[in-house]
Amino acid sequence: MTFWDMEFTAEAMPDLLSGLWVTVQATVMGYLIALTLGLLIAVVRRVRVLGALVHGVMEFIRTTPLVAQLVFVFLLAPSTVTAMTVGVVVLGVHYSAYTAEVYRSGIEGVAKGQWEAARALSLPASRTWGAIVLPQAIRKVIPALGNYLIAMFKDTPLLFAIGVAELLTQAQRIGSVSFRLVEAYTLVGFLFLAVSIPSAILIRRLERRYAAV
Amino acid sequence: MPPSDTPSTEAPQGVEGQPQIVFDQVVKRFGELTVLDRLDFAVEPGERVTLIGPSGSGKTTILRLLMTLEKVTEGHIHVAGEPFSHMRRGNHLVPANESYLRRRRRSIGMVFQQFNLFPNMTVRKNVIEAPVHVLGLSKDEADERAVELLELVGLGDKIDAHPTQLSGGQQQRVAIARALAMRPDILLLDEVTSALDPELVAGVLDVLRQVAESTDITMLCVTHEMGFARDVSHRVLMFDKGRIAEEGTPEQIFEDPREERTRSFLRSVLDNGF
Q1: Which of A134, A172, B71, B211 has most Cβ atoms within 10 angstroms of its Cβ?
Q2: Alpha carbons B248 and B237: distance in angstroms, whole number
Q3: Interface test with A, best of B116, B174, B178 (most A CBs within 10 A)
Q4: CA nearest neighbour of A157 among A175, A171, A147
Q5: What's the CATH number for A6-211?
Q6: pTM (2 d.p.)
Q7: Domain ranges of chain A
Q8: How many other CB atoms are there within 10 angstroms of residue A85's CB atom?
């Protein structure tokens, strides 16, 4: 048995790539949930009673492990709901607890004078938020939000716990059939790098672009 | 009336004796601190009143109460003969709710010390935002109004610039245009030149002189620019410790103040080169 088997690598690649595709899909869909739900939470948190309630739920989500949340929701979910759906939703909701904090810091960073000027012009709440506060707040936090995209991507292997056919699950399956675990897991590492390094570069570029203004 | 360099400072006659703004025993406290102490005063329609006094004497709070950025602790404010800080419910006055305030304060515009332009919008968008989304003007109507007002403040060529590309003085002139675009009956000016470099002050004050001259907007002005106060205002109110220490015409207050507090305040302001 050689240390690295090229033939095996070639054979395993299609399955690994399909796993990577699932990983990317889960990340992107989960991220979209985290972006929108997080924004909603950040705005709702400014409402008195409701805000405190939402804050409590978010604290709970942030202080319990993601993998436990995945398994818990998967076990509770009706059998018609696929593991992938559970995975995407839990991942998205979990990360929305973090993105909400990012949005919140952005909103608090908008100068008080902006709110006062909006009020002095009698602008309705929808314009104050939609045209003045959020555009300024979001612009400031784009880099921080980008970092959570990469963090989520690296957390998708946790979907392994509920049997989503993502990259790690595929590697585990191939490895246990062929006993070529070193190759399988090394390839997983490379494939993760192949996605996360370009993403990181892209995000750093965004960061520079928005920091400049 | 022939055009003149300085607006007429002859006090206007109130419409049917109805004051535009009335403060009735207004108290404003922040915790233990009493900022306004049972304050009574009235402003006639079209009157231009300058509020002077040491910092912390409550001048800015008066503007912030009118802009509903603060709420009165006690007492009532009336605007245009109708309750403003409160609203009628049956025969009672109850503290005004948000929708009542939003409706009432449309007639009031404010220009801030720090300009507070929206940096994510062009000059044009800054000016048309409220006319379109509050008054319901069409884009074209609002745009026409914006062009006209930006010409008035001498910034017709900056209409598509972003606020960050403008000097402080230019930003403040845009802020004036933005406030005027709502066609307010009352314009509140809160130390509008205090944040400006000295060489930019004159441009902003000239624009305001022109506004005073060409409109009959009621103006309430907190300022340390005594020359400007003298030129445009009909009446000067000297505040001290949340009360009016002295009031009179600009000539009276600046040339022959009765109160020692007014005298020492004016001395300190003039010594500081204002």
Answers
A1: B211
A2: 7
A3: B116
A4: A171
A5: 1.10.3720.10
A6: 0.83
A7: 6-211
A8: 14
8 Å CB contact between A153 and A195: yes
Dump pLDDT digits (tens) for B239-273: 998 999 999 999 999 999 999 999 999 988 877 65
| ipTM of the complex, rounded to two decimals | 0.87
Residue of chain A whose Cα is closest to the Cα of B108: A120
Chain B residues with CB inside 8 Å of A127's CB? 129, 133
Rounded Cα distance, B103 and A52, in Å: 30
Q: pLDDT of A175-205, one tens digit each?
A: 888 888 888 888 888 888 988 888 888 888 8
Which percentage of chain B shows pLDDT scores above 70? 93
B145-203 pLDDT, tens digit per residue, is: 999 999 999 999 999 999 999 999 999 999 999 999 999 999 999 999 988 888 889 88
Q: Name the residue facing A120 among B110, B119, B120 (closest C-beta).
A: B110
Question: Hey, are the CB atoms on B179 and A111 less than 8 Å from each other?
Answer: no
Task: Kindly determine whether residue A120 and residue B121, on different chains, have CB atoms separated by under 8 Å.
Answer: no
CA dist., res. B89 & res. B102, Å (int): 17
Q: Does domain B15-271 have CATH number 3.30.450.20?
A: no
Q: Per CB distance under 8 Å, which residues of A are interface residues toward B?
A: 111, 113-114, 116-117, 119-124, 127, 131-132, 135-136, 139
